[in-house]
Amino acid sequence: MSQHPRGQVDLCAMANVPPSPTASALTALRPCAQEKGLTVAQLLEHRVDRLWQSAPLIADLGALFADSGHDLYLVGGSVRDALMGMLGHDLDFTTDAHPDEIEALLRQRTRTTWDIGRAFGTIGAMIDDWQVEITTYRTDVYRPDSRKPEIAFGDTLDDDLIRRDFTVNAMALHAANREFVDPHHGLTDLASGMLRTPFPPQRSFSDDPLRMMRAARFTSQLGFTVTDEVRAAMTGMADRMSIISAERVRDELSKLLLTDSPREGLMLLVDTGIASIVLPELPALRLEPDEHHRHKDVYEHSLTVVDQSIELEKRRGHDPDLVGRLAALLHDIGKPATRRFEPGGKVSFHHHDVVGAKMARKRLKALNYPSDIVKAVCLLVELHLRSYGYGDQGWTDSAVRRYVRDAGDQLERLHILTRADCTTRNRRKAERLEFAYDDLERRIAELAAQEELDATRPDLDGGQIMAILGIEPGPVVGRAYKFLLNLRIEEGPHTTDQAEKALKAWWAQQPESTQS
Q1: Which helix (H) or strand (E) holds 101?
Q2: Angle at 299 between CA 267 and CA 288, to 5 degrees
Q3: Mean pLDDT, all residues of the chain
Q4: Cβ atoms of 335 and 285 closer than 8 Å
Q5: Which residue(s) pair with 127 in the sheet?
Q6: Cα→Cα distances 55→28, 45, 211, 506, 508, Å
Q7: pTM, rounded to two decimals
Q8: Cα dist from 413 to 323, 327, 485, 490, whole Å
Q9: Do 7 and 180 contact (CB within 8 A), yes or no?
Q10: From its phi and psi, is residue 58 left (phi > 0), alpha (psi between -120 and 50) or beta?
């Protein structure tokens, strides 16, 4: 394997990287780096040997393209992840071949190809268990007044690599001869856990401002730290985010929230002013404390709720949940608008749940989130205080039924959010809240087992209502249905005879009964 002359790295420096947030991610590199006398070429050889063994498809495709007179390079996140020992089932390549040529070559290996974006130079394919994307060398850039990049195909690999977001994503491996290309010293930055741009960051972020949000995501996803120059550029160019389409902002925010530890990335967005453009409700939570510090830091509290909801997700065996994490992040955004200083030194946030749900709906719609996500998140924000007071007053069975009915299919997410919302440092208070919610979940489970609570319906259906009352379809049937539903919630299930008797008694009080 040849070593690109501009990519030489001092391996001793890599071997002696001080402990950092990225230490765990680089565990796979350390055994090699700790061996005295290793050269960078030997380190790379070890890593690339393992990559070629685990993904022989790389060499197969390299030979296929080489036989047709084209270079093919594994590139970007695929190289980064392979060197970190965490490659998934996606392989990203770049090539001097154009899209029609790429598609023709891929069809020699599989019929499962698709046109991801021919205008962007990308063709995708599924080969064995690998999802492959191959893109023609590109040199696309943003213009100052444009929301979309201008696409242009490049002529060289160097042209393609220098346009990439960060140096750790600007490394390449030739798929045929295994040449390692690292013109911007991405391997050094990978080892030190730093995010740096190939171009000066001002130019890189001007070309595509979304890269500033990607920097935040990578701090959470990879545990990396942005350089001082990158942070300064993000701060100085935050307003540039206003040209990015809502859909691209939404997708990057979602990716950030779905990492194992979104906190660092969210804090970077807030500290650099980017969140003030894309999610202004978040920095608004940094309420100026009153002189007596009569309420806790709502911003820090919200980040902690996100942390704790993720931990509860894992403990309960759930996959990363975008709806739950959005709800955790936004559950208190109504507090700044509802903060009041009350007589006696107290601070109140009356109805911040309802106000917050309306604010969340407006923001999520502006980011073009799907309606089902908007509806679910807003319901959780609106209900996140509903269980407060349960431990002090106790609830009737009908109140528990109503809680379940109102939560609907979001009940499990509401359980997680409500528990995560407890961030008090008062151990006795925390234990009391946990005990109360344990008891509430126990009662919900008992009632569900007894009454099939998750599918609560009236004891009579619409057809039975019309037959008993001798009426035709119309608004009265809906009112009768609602009466029976409330009756079941309040009193639990009834026999058919009991429900019919109650229905007739209700009907006798209705003005329409005298007209039938």
Answers
A1: helix 99-106
A2: 115
A3: 85
A4: yes
A5: 130
A6: 17, 15, 29, 71, 76
A7: 0.79
A8: 8, 9, 24, 25
A9: yes
A10: alpha
